Amino acid sequence: MLNSLVGILSGGGAGAAASSYESIATVVGNASASTITFSSIPSTYVALQVRFISRRNTGGNASNNALNLTFNGGGTSIYTTHEIQANGSTVASRAPNTNGNEIILTNGTAGSNQTANVMSVGILDIQDYKSTTRNKTIRYVAGNESNGVDTGYFTLSSGLYAATTAITSITFTNTNPFTTSSVFSLYGIKG
Amino acid sequence: MPTTYEPIATTTLGSAASSITFSSIPATYTDLRIVFVGNCVSASRYLALTFNADLLTNYSMTYLAGDGTSAVSSRRTNDTVLYSNNYSGSSITIPQMITADVFSYAGATNKTTLFTTASDKNGSGTTDVAVGLWRSTSAITSIALTYVATANIAAGSIATLYGIKNA
Predict the structure, then answer these.
(1) Is B42 exposed, middle or buried (0-12, 13-18, 19+ CB in 10 A)?
(2) B108 in contact with A, Cβ within 8 Å
(3) Assembly ipTM
């Protein structure tokens, strides 16, 4: 895809000693691509974790912009999301989608018109990603804070990928391109 | 070359102290993680972080807390320290577990931290999460942990700093 960034397993990143938490790949935004993908994910781990900082290069609300999360290139009507979110004054519980085409990662990216150098940050955990008999559940936490200039948010979500296929790729889709300061890092956890 | 997830330093207090400080933090990692288990010599205090000895009003946070009855959210702005939580606070006898994930600590953007606080007091207490901001584009080279309003960290408290390195 012309507007996507792809991180492919490098085989490196871990130190000389054996480790149960290994870095798999890192993708950095380039101000033109609105999609970040990790592909060819090996089946040698028990769980995956993505840690990221994110901002849109153009467009977007001041804060509380969402990313879309899909696995294995997509899927129709097999994603569901639930979230709890706090904005400094209220707490809300929502179901952003049910049987949809992506998991919605609310607050997953700062907007381009937000306070300069403010990023959204997040951690995405995927347990049992390689199972071929069970659906996949993800846990997601993210936050965006700007000293009250824009509304700060904390989001905790659970997501369902109702597919019994092993996850071999992960795609984050932004409405607008990721800045060059956006970094997404994939880690594998061994059992 | 550092491993992907490794402890950088650990401090266990043999006696109460006003702070725990991690200094000379190398810039070789991507993110930092602090895990604190301990308590304060006074009740209802909040564990806070200070980066690079910056005591100016460059910190803010937004939090979500649940106390067993309700869920609340509020915000602090223009603080001189970065609060990890701000609802129920510490116990004199029951330790809290507090984690802080500091993202891209050596990068050129402002520094955002995600906090979790487990502070159950057997009939009271809270579970808290928060997002915090240090408005500085400087790399973090030191982190100090203190309780606010000022009170010593209790003897036996443990703080560990981890480095996480991406590919």
Answers:
(1) middle
(2) yes
(3) 0.95
